[in-house]
Amino acid sequence: MTSDRLSKGIKEFLLSKEPDYFYVGASFLLVLVLVTRMVRSMLEGWSAIYDITFNAYGVVVYAVAAVLFFRRVVPKRIAALKDNIIPFLSFVSPAAMIFLGGYVPLVASFPIVSILLYITGCGLAVASFLSLGKGFGVLPAIRRVATGGPYRYIRHPAYLGEGLYAIGIMLFRVNWMTGFILVVTIVLGLMRILIEERVLSRSPEYRRYRKSTRYRLIPGLW
To answer: Which of helix, strand or coil describes residue 16?
Structure first.
């Protein structure tokens, strides 16, 4: 009985606005960390231009996320509690690649390709976040269905953007740590899509959208 009350209490909490303030704080904390890293890189001079770029785009992504967390609507329905773990890990894993990858010796680096992928991925992710608007979220929930912007072409453009910039991060610092976290990020991202679609499919509006927008992540493939 106590377990049922606890589960019900957690669910009621997640269906309120309170968790959003936690995400706002966490996002702004990441912005502060990335700004600090960016300033430190700038003090080293233009030889650190790649580090500056990585941190600058990270600042943009998490700043946009923080603002959207603050503005988003309360969900109509959320996933089961156990289905929130993988989406949360998927959200933070690219940041783990940035923070942990530098502690392992470098094997190779492809800076130009990595920066292009990183900027493209961040741009697609931010465009997707803005298209979601008040329906933006990290954990699977029914808020509102986005059909404009990148969502006209695939059902999960934000996750494609996250995948591209994760590959970009790995290519900048190729070592066993970044390679391992990239594989984990991709696997978690694919699982996140399936979990999210299972929740969203309870919405008639999303089922109609799914029929008109056929592919989840890569047009013509999946």
So the answer is: coil
Least Cα distance to 147 among 162, 160, 137, 157 occurs for: 157
CA distances (Å), origin 64, targets 72, 74, 83, 84, 200: 12, 18, 25, 22, 23
Computed over every residue of the chain, the mean pLDDT equals 81
Domain assignment present for 76: yes
Decide if 219 is inside a domain: no
Q: Compute φ and ψ for 77, nearest 5 degrees.
A: -155, 145
CA atoms within 13 A on the CB side of 28: 11
Model's pTM, two decimal places?
0.80
Q: Which amino acid is at 126?
A: V
Question: Is residue 12 in some structural domain?
Answer: yes
Strand-pair category, 77-78 with 141-142: antiparallel
**Domain that residue 121 falls in:** 2-212
Average pLDDT over residues 178-191: 91
H or E element, residue 41: helix 18-43
